[in-house]
Amino acid sequence: MILYGSSMSPFVRKTMAFLSEKGLKAEIVPVGFGDPNPGFRAASPFLKMPGFSDGDFSISDSTAIITYLEAKHPTPSMVPADPASRARTIWYEEFADTILIACMGKVFFNRVVAPRFLGLPGDQAVADAAEKDEFPPLADYLEGIIPASGFLVDDRLTLADLAVASPFVNFSHVGIEVDAKTHPKTRTYVDAILARPSFAPIIAQEKAFLAR
Questions:
Q1: pTM above 0.85?
Q2: What percentage of the chain exceeds 90 in pLDDT?
């Protein structure tokens, strides 16, 4: 199996963590914006990360990749079979992939991607507004729904947790952390999920890269 992308993408990072939690191995092929890698272009015709191939099967989009992996390697289960639990898992992934990452993207793109990787000035007003106005309600939402178990669905680790935790790595890279005083459950939750062996080595590599 080959996974194309950069772990700086929360979608790629989520997929890498999913593979790890499943005990699966994949070759990680780094690609960037508009990368000419033919394998990546075959797997992801619109050049969106991640791309994925498994033998003669190729697909892009983290949700599609994870759907394939869950069906082909059902143990351990990361997407519950119970209808209500499955629906909640998919909702949390959707919340992360659209709502949470939309906020994160405005900050991370303008403070890191544009100036460091594209040589463009970031729009700091957009980044500041996302941090000030958009981030707090998202933290409020999580603070109100995180169960005492520390897992979003069925009191065990699921795709929901990997999806929701992944964007917080990018927030951390730009100095945005959940306030432990105002959002103690959320801070504890994020720290615990990101400390797992499926995330921790990835995060360490990213921090080392950004520190150069």
A1: yes
A2: 96
